[in-house]
Protein backbone atom coordinates (compact mmCIF):
# COMPACT_ATOMS: atom_id res chain seq x y z
CA UNK A 1 0.00 0.00 0.00
CA UNK A 2 1.00 3.63 -0.32
CA UNK A 3 2.97 4.69 2.75
CA UNK A 4 1.17 7.38 4.73
CA UNK A 5 3.36 9.92 6.49
CA UNK A 6 2.59 12.09 9.48
CA UNK A 7 3.00 15.09 7.18
CA UNK A 8 0.22 13.75 4.93
CA UNK A 9 -2.03 13.17 7.93
CA UNK A 10 -1.36 16.74 9.08
CA UNK A 11 -2.25 18.00 5.58
CA UNK A 12 -5.51 16.07 5.79
CA UNK A 13 -6.39 17.81 9.03
CA UNK A 14 -5.51 21.18 7.49
CA UNK A 15 -7.24 20.76 4.11
CA UNK A 16 -10.07 18.34 4.90
CA UNK A 17 -8.99 15.94 2.13
CA UNK A 18 -5.99 13.84 1.14
CA UNK A 19 -5.04 12.03 -2.09
CA UNK A 20 -3.19 8.73 -1.78
CA UNK A 21 -2.24 7.62 -5.28
CA UNK A 22 -1.96 3.89 -6.12
CA UNK A 23 -3.53 2.85 -2.81
CA UNK A 24 -5.33 -0.02 -4.55
CA UNK A 25 -3.93 -2.18 -7.35
CA UNK A 26 -5.30 -2.28 -10.88
CA UNK A 27 -6.39 -5.87 -10.19
CA UNK A 28 -8.41 -4.79 -7.15
CA UNK A 29 -10.07 -2.04 -9.18
CA UNK A 30 -10.89 -4.42 -12.01
CA UNK A 31 -12.37 -6.94 -9.57
CA UNK A 32 -14.82 -4.29 -8.35
CA UNK A 33 -15.75 -3.25 -11.87
CA UNK A 34 -16.30 -6.85 -12.94
CA UNK A 35 -18.45 -7.51 -9.89
CA UNK A 36 -20.62 -4.46 -10.50
CA UNK A 37 -21.21 -5.59 -14.09
CA UNK A 38 -22.69 -8.81 -12.73
CA UNK A 39 -24.86 -6.90 -10.26
CA UNK A 40 -26.19 -4.56 -12.96
CA UNK A 41 -26.88 -7.48 -15.31
CA UNK A 42 -29.14 -8.98 -12.63
CA UNK A 43 -30.72 -5.63 -11.70
CA UNK A 44 -34.49 -5.66 -11.26
CA UNK A 45 -36.14 -2.41 -10.15
CA UNK A 46 -39.94 -1.97 -10.36
CA UNK A 47 -40.79 1.10 -12.51
CA UNK A 48 -42.45 2.93 -9.59
CA UNK A 49 -39.23 2.63 -7.57
CA UNK A 50 -36.89 3.99 -10.24
CA UNK A 51 -35.55 7.25 -8.83
CA UNK A 52 -33.24 9.76 -10.51
CA UNK A 53 -30.29 10.68 -8.32
CA UNK A 54 -29.45 14.33 -7.63
CA UNK A 55 -27.77 16.41 -4.92
CA UNK A 56 -29.86 19.49 -5.76
CA UNK A 57 -32.39 20.07 -2.99
CA UNK A 58 -35.46 20.66 -5.14
CA UNK A 59 -34.65 17.68 -7.37
CA UNK A 60 -34.04 15.43 -4.37
CA UNK A 61 -37.40 16.27 -2.89
CA UNK A 62 -39.15 15.92 -6.25
CA UNK A 63 -37.54 12.52 -6.79
CA UNK A 64 -38.90 11.33 -3.47
CA UNK A 65 -42.39 12.41 -4.52
CA UNK A 66 -42.14 10.75 -7.91
CA UNK A 67 -40.33 7.59 -6.81
CA UNK A 68 -40.74 5.27 -3.90
CA UNK A 69 -39.87 6.89 -0.59
CA UNK A 70 -39.48 3.50 1.03
CA UNK A 71 -37.11 2.35 -1.71
CA UNK A 72 -34.70 5.15 -0.74
CA UNK A 73 -35.25 5.23 3.03
CA UNK A 74 -34.76 1.48 3.40
CA UNK A 75 -31.68 1.28 1.16
CA UNK A 76 -29.25 1.63 4.05
CA UNK A 77 -29.18 -2.12 4.61
CA UNK A 78 -29.74 -3.22 1.00
CA UNK A 79 -28.21 -3.00 -2.48
CA UNK A 80 -30.38 -0.65 -4.52
CA UNK A 81 -30.20 1.28 -7.78
CA UNK A 82 -30.51 4.99 -8.60
CA UNK A 83 -30.52 6.51 -12.07
CA UNK A 84 -29.21 9.47 -14.04
CA UNK A 85 -31.48 12.37 -14.92
CA UNK A 86 -33.35 12.07 -18.20
CA UNK A 87 -33.02 8.31 -18.64
CA UNK A 88 -36.59 7.46 -17.57
CA UNK A 89 -39.93 8.33 -19.14
CA UNK A 90 -42.93 9.46 -17.09
CA UNK A 91 -43.86 5.83 -16.37
CA UNK A 92 -40.38 4.88 -15.17
CA UNK A 93 -39.40 3.02 -18.34
CA UNK A 94 -35.80 3.21 -19.55
CA UNK A 95 -35.11 5.48 -22.51
CA UNK A 96 -31.58 4.08 -22.94
CA UNK A 97 -30.04 0.67 -22.11
CA UNK A 98 -30.37 0.09 -18.37
CA UNK A 99 -26.65 -0.53 -17.89
CA UNK A 100 -25.98 2.99 -19.25
CA UNK A 101 -28.65 4.60 -17.08
CA UNK A 102 -27.42 3.79 -13.58
CA UNK A 103 -26.01 6.70 -11.58
CA UNK A 104 -25.15 4.86 -8.38
CA UNK A 105 -25.74 1.66 -6.44
CA UNK A 106 -26.08 1.92 -2.66
CA UNK A 107 -25.98 1.70 0.24
CA UNK A 108 -24.80 -1.64 1.68
CA UNK A 109 -22.42 -3.15 -0.86
CA UNK A 110 -19.86 -3.29 1.96
CA UNK A 111 -22.10 -5.67 3.90
CA UNK A 112 -23.66 -7.96 1.33
CA UNK A 113 -21.24 -8.28 -1.59
CA UNK A 114 -18.08 -10.30 -0.92
CA UNK A 115 -15.84 -8.28 -3.27
CA UNK A 116 -16.80 -4.90 -1.84
CA UNK A 117 -16.80 -6.23 1.71
CA UNK A 118 -13.22 -7.43 1.27
CA UNK A 119 -12.09 -4.07 -0.10
CA UNK A 120 -13.83 -2.12 2.67
CA UNK A 121 -12.26 -4.21 5.42
CA UNK A 122 -8.92 -4.78 3.70
CA UNK A 123 -5.81 -4.72 5.87
CA UNK A 124 -4.52 -1.54 4.23
CA UNK A 125 -7.78 0.31 4.92
CA UNK A 126 -7.64 -0.86 8.53
CA UNK A 127 -4.01 0.20 8.82
CA UNK A 128 -4.86 3.62 7.43
CA UNK A 129 -7.72 3.97 9.92
CA UNK A 130 -5.34 3.26 12.79
CA UNK A 131 -2.79 5.77 11.48
CA UNK A 132 -5.59 8.35 11.42
CA UNK A 133 -6.26 7.60 15.07
CA UNK A 134 -9.64 5.92 14.61
CA UNK A 135 -10.37 3.80 17.67
CA UNK A 136 -13.86 2.38 17.07
CA UNK A 137 -14.64 3.10 13.41
CA UNK A 138 -17.85 1.66 11.97
CA UNK A 139 -18.95 1.56 8.33
CA UNK A 140 -22.25 3.41 7.84
CA UNK A 141 -22.80 3.21 4.08
CA UNK A 142 -21.22 2.46 0.72
CA UNK A 143 -21.91 3.41 -2.90
CA UNK A 144 -20.72 2.53 -6.38
CA UNK A 145 -20.86 5.66 -8.58
CA UNK A 146 -20.74 5.40 -12.39
CA UNK A 147 -20.53 8.97 -13.77
CA UNK A 148 -21.74 7.70 -17.12
CA UNK A 149 -20.09 9.05 -20.33
CA UNK A 150 -21.82 12.15 -21.65
CA UNK A 151 -24.65 12.11 -19.11
CA UNK A 152 -22.99 11.63 -15.72
CA UNK A 153 -24.62 14.43 -13.77
CA UNK A 154 -22.92 17.13 -11.74
CA UNK A 155 -22.81 16.79 -7.98
CA UNK A 156 -23.39 20.25 -6.57
CA UNK A 157 -21.28 21.67 -3.71
CA UNK A 158 -22.13 19.90 -0.47
CA UNK A 159 -20.83 18.51 2.82
CA UNK A 160 -21.31 14.84 3.61
CA UNK A 161 -22.35 15.75 7.17
CA UNK A 162 -25.48 17.34 5.69
CA UNK A 163 -26.68 13.79 5.04
CA UNK A 164 -24.70 11.87 7.70
CA UNK A 165 -24.98 13.95 10.86
CA UNK A 166 -23.22 13.17 14.13
CA UNK A 167 -22.79 14.84 17.46
CA UNK A 168 -20.18 16.06 17.85
CA UNK A 169 -19.34 16.86 14.24
CA UNK A 170 -16.07 15.75 12.72
CA UNK A 171 -16.67 12.02 13.19
CA UNK A 172 -17.50 11.01 9.58
CA UNK A 173 -14.81 10.19 7.03
CA UNK A 174 -15.25 9.25 3.36
CA UNK A 175 -13.02 6.76 1.50
CA UNK A 176 -13.32 7.53 -2.24
CA UNK A 177 -11.63 4.99 -4.55
CA UNK A 178 -11.03 5.76 -8.23
CA UNK A 179 -11.63 2.62 -10.28
CA UNK A 180 -10.68 4.53 -13.44
CA UNK A 181 -8.62 7.67 -13.94
CA UNK A 182 -10.68 10.61 -12.63
CA UNK A 183 -9.89 13.69 -14.72
CA UNK A 184 -11.28 17.19 -15.08
CA UNK A 185 -12.88 16.03 -18.33
CA UNK A 186 -14.82 13.09 -16.86
CA UNK A 187 -15.80 14.62 -13.54
CA UNK A 188 -13.09 14.47 -10.88
CA UNK A 189 -13.76 15.89 -7.42
CA UNK A 190 -13.21 19.56 -6.56
CA UNK A 191 -12.63 20.82 -3.00
CA UNK A 192 -12.48 24.04 -1.02
CA UNK A 193 -9.37 23.55 1.13
CA UNK A 194 -9.96 24.18 4.83
CA UNK A 195 -13.74 24.39 4.46
CA UNK A 196 -14.25 21.63 7.04
CA UNK A 197 -13.57 24.01 9.94
CA UNK A 198 -16.76 26.09 9.84
CA UNK A 199 -19.45 23.55 10.72
CA UNK A 200 -22.52 22.93 8.56
CA UNK A 201 -25.48 25.09 7.60
CA UNK A 202 -27.84 22.50 6.11
CA UNK A 203 -29.14 19.09 7.15
CA UNK A 204 -31.26 16.51 5.38
CA UNK A 205 -33.59 14.90 7.94
CA UNK A 206 -36.42 12.41 7.88
CA UNK A 207 -39.72 14.16 7.28
CA UNK A 208 -42.61 13.69 9.72
CA UNK A 209 -44.94 10.84 8.80
CA UNK A 210 -47.81 11.91 6.62
CA UNK A 211 -45.84 14.48 4.60
CA UNK A 212 -45.49 14.24 0.83
CA UNK A 213 -41.74 13.55 0.90
CA UNK A 214 -39.69 11.18 3.03
CA UNK A 215 -36.96 13.73 3.74
CA UNK A 216 -36.71 17.49 4.13
CA UNK A 217 -33.93 20.04 4.50
CA UNK A 218 -33.27 22.22 7.52
CA UNK A 219 -31.16 25.31 6.87
CA UNK A 220 -29.68 26.25 3.50
CA UNK A 221 -26.49 25.71 1.56
CA UNK A 222 -24.47 28.94 1.22
CA UNK A 223 -23.34 30.15 -2.17
CA UNK A 224 -19.83 29.26 -3.20
CA UNK A 225 -17.52 30.96 -5.66
CA UNK A 226 -16.09 28.65 -8.30
CA UNK A 227 -12.66 30.22 -7.72
CA UNK A 228 -12.63 28.72 -4.19
CA UNK A 229 -12.48 25.15 -5.53
CA UNK A 230 -9.41 23.23 -6.64
CA UNK A 231 -9.62 20.07 -8.79
CA UNK A 232 -8.29 16.75 -7.51
CA UNK A 233 -7.67 14.46 -10.50
CA UNK A 234 -6.56 11.02 -9.36
CA UNK A 235 -5.31 7.92 -11.15
CA UNK A 236 -6.95 4.50 -11.17
CA UNK A 237 -6.42 2.92 -7.76
CA UNK A 238 -6.04 6.25 -6.00
CA UNK A 239 -7.85 6.92 -2.72
CA UNK A 240 -9.20 10.29 -1.61
CA UNK A 241 -9.94 10.74 2.10
CA UNK A 242 -12.82 13.18 2.60
CA UNK A 243 -13.59 14.90 5.90
CA UNK A 244 -17.33 14.91 6.63
CA UNK A 245 -17.56 18.72 6.65
CA UNK A 246 -15.29 19.63 3.73
CA UNK A 247 -17.13 21.27 0.81
CA UNK A 248 -16.72 19.37 -2.45
CA UNK A 249 -18.41 18.86 -5.82
CA UNK A 250 -17.97 17.27 -9.24
CA UNK A 251 -18.91 18.53 -12.68
CA UNK A 252 -20.99 16.98 -15.44
CA UNK A 253 -19.18 14.26 -17.35
CA UNK A 254 -19.25 15.55 -20.90
CA UNK A 255 -16.45 13.21 -22.05
CA UNK A 256 -16.65 9.81 -23.70
CA UNK A 257 -15.06 8.12 -20.67
CA UNK A 258 -16.87 6.94 -17.57
CA UNK A 259 -15.56 7.66 -14.06
CA UNK A 260 -16.31 4.64 -11.89
CA UNK A 261 -15.82 4.98 -8.13
CA UNK A 262 -16.40 2.89 -5.03
CA UNK A 263 -16.87 4.97 -1.90
CA UNK A 264 -17.80 4.26 1.69
CA UNK A 265 -18.23 6.31 4.85
CA UNK A 266 -16.85 5.52 8.28
CA UNK A 267 -17.87 7.01 11.63
CA UNK A 268 -15.69 7.10 14.74
CA UNK A 269 -18.16 5.54 17.14
CA UNK A 270 -16.24 6.30 20.34
CA UNK A 271 -17.99 9.20 22.08
CA UNK A 272 -20.26 9.83 19.09
CA UNK A 273 -24.04 9.98 18.69
CA UNK A 274 -25.60 9.12 15.32
CA UNK A 275 -28.55 11.43 14.69
CA UNK A 276 -31.94 9.70 14.82
CA UNK A 277 -33.07 12.29 12.24
CA UNK A 278 -30.64 10.98 9.61
CA UNK A 279 -32.29 9.29 6.62
CA UNK A 280 -29.91 6.35 7.14
CA UNK A 281 -30.42 4.30 10.29
CA UNK A 282 -28.79 1.07 11.48
CA UNK A 283 -31.18 -1.87 11.65
CA UNK A 284 -31.28 -5.16 13.57
CA UNK A 285 -30.48 -6.85 10.25
CA UNK A 286 -27.50 -4.56 9.65
CA UNK A 287 -26.01 -2.71 12.60
CA UNK A 288 -23.07 -0.56 11.57
CA UNK A 289 -20.17 -3.07 11.29
CA UNK A 290 -16.75 -2.36 12.73
CA UNK A 291 -14.15 -1.37 10.16
CA UNK A 292 -11.64 -3.50 12.05
CA UNK A 293 -13.48 -6.81 11.85
TrEMBL record:
Keywords: Iron, Metal-binding. InterPro entries: Phytyl_CoA_dOase-like (IPR008775). The keyword Ion transport does not apply. It holds the Pfam family PhyH. Its cofactor is Fe cation. It comes from the Eukaryota. One of its GO terms (molecular function) is metal ion binding. 2-oxoglutarate(2OG)-dependent dioxygenase that catalyzes the conversion of 2-oxoglutarate to succinate and CO(2) in an iron-dependent manner. However, does not couple 2OG turnover to the hydroxylation of acyl-coenzyme A derivatives, implying that it is not directly involved in phytanoyl coenzyme-A metabolism. Does not show detectable activity towards fatty acid CoA thioesters. Belongs to the PhyH family. PHYHD1 subfamily. This is Phytanoyl-CoA dioxygenase domain-containing protein 1.
Amino acid sequence: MAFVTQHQIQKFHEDGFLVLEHFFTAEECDSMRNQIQKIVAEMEVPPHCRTEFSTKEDEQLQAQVQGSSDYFLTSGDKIRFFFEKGVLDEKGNFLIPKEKSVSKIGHALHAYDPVFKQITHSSKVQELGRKLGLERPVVVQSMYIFKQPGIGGEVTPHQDATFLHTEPLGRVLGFWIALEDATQENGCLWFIPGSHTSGITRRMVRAPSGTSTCVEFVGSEPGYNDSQFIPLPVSKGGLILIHGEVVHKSELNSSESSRHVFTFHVMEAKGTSWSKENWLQPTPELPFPSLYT
